TrEMBL record:
Family: Belongs to the iron/ascorbate-dependent oxidoreductase family.
InterPro entries per the UniProt record, alphabetical: IPNS-like_FE2OG_OXY (IPR044861), IPNS-like_sf (IPR027443), Iron_ascorbate_oxido_reductase (IPR050231), Kinase-pyrophosphorylase (IPR005177), Oxoglu/Fe-dep_dioxygenase_dom (IPR005123)
Domain named Fe2OG dioxygenase: residues: 37-136
GO MF, one annotated term: metal ion binding
Protein name: Fe2OG dioxygenase domain-containing protein
Lineage top rank: taxon: Eukaryota
Gene3D superfamilies: B-lactam Antibiotic, Isopenicillin N Synthase, Chain
Organism the protein comes from: Populus deltoides (Eastern poplar)
Record's keyword annotation contains Oxidoreductase: yes
Keyword annotations of the record: Iron, Kinase, Metal-binding, Nucleotide-binding, Oxidoreductase, Serine/threonine-protein kinase, Transferase
PROSITE patterns in the record: FE2OG_OXY
Length: 259
């Protein structure tokens, strides 16, 4: 196993260098940031499942790294999505599977795409696989190599934490942070100020009440016409169901304020 880890670690460095060179970059980024202490090897066992149509061995997801190098046994079960359809990856004992991860997608500015994949279970036999994850240190900053950047700069630590938070809150991984997502008041104010300069109207869909209120007040102070989309929709649905926006019936204990 140690020899396998050493071999695929060297392979990952070579592949990353080739992929970067194809983008026109000869960089020491991967040698300097993806070290043996930051990458890791994981062995997976998928036991037989009597209801394979109802249970995944691994839910659909993308990998939160630069590259994943995978060896799977002869049982199979790995599937990749392409053009909205799932395709089985036929096991080949003489081959390794290489997946682009989220970090390479962000670093390449969407030239390389992180592949969504899953593992389906087998009703009769167990499955084994070994995966090598080519990762940087947590403090490494990921920034697109092209401008204009599709993604805002982020650290690997921030991304891993965001993935964990999303899974806890939503039950799934959301994915890469994009420049068109507004996640802080400072960026929100920049957009509103730009709208004021251009004499534009602001239409916002902010689920966070504090962010929505900040947008409303800023637009009022700057004299910009603005409207929130989510608020009226939520109020209309709540009114139709005769509940408060929280979902509680009107007049419920502790809910004596108007909608």
């Amino acid at each position: 196993m140690e020899q396998f880890a050493t071999t695929v670690a060297d392979l990952a460095q070579k592949l990353a260098a080739i992929l970067a060179e194809k983008l026109g970059f000869k960089s020491n980024f991967f040698q300097e940031n993806c070290l043996s202490s930051t990458c890791y090897l994981r062995m997976n066992r998928y036991p037989p499942c009597p209801i394979p149509s109802d249970v995944f061995g691994l839910m659909p997801h993308t990998d939160s790294d630069f590259l994943t190098i995978l060896y799977q046994d002869e049982v199979g079960g790995l599937q990749l999505v392409k053009d909205g359809k799932w395709f089985a990856v036929k096991p080949n004992p003489e081959a390794l599977i290489v997946n682009i991860g989220d970090l390479f997608q962000a670093w390449s500015n969407d030239v390389y795409k992180s592949v969504q994949h899953r593992v389906v279970t087998n009703p009769r036999v167990e499955r084994f696989s070994t995966a090598y994850f080519f990762c940087p240190s947590y403090d490494t900053e990921i920034q697109s190599c092209y401008e204009p950047s599709v993604y805002k700069k982020f650290s690997f630590r921030m991304y891993r934490q965001q993935v964990q938070d999303d899974v806890k809150k939503l039950g799934r991984k959301v994915g890469l942070p994009s420049d068109d997502q507004i996640d802080d008041v400072e960026r929100l104010m920049e957009i509103i100020k730009q709208a004021a300069k251009e004499g534009a109207m602001v239409v916002y869909t902010l689920a966070d009440p504090s962010m929505a209120e900040s947008a409303k007040l800023a637009c009022k102070l700057l004299g910009i016409p603005a409207t929130g989309v989510i608020g009226p929709i939520t109020e209309a649905i709540a009114s139709h169901l005769d509940v408060l926006p929280s979902g509680l019936p009107r007049g419920a204990p502790g809910r004596n304020f108007p909608l």
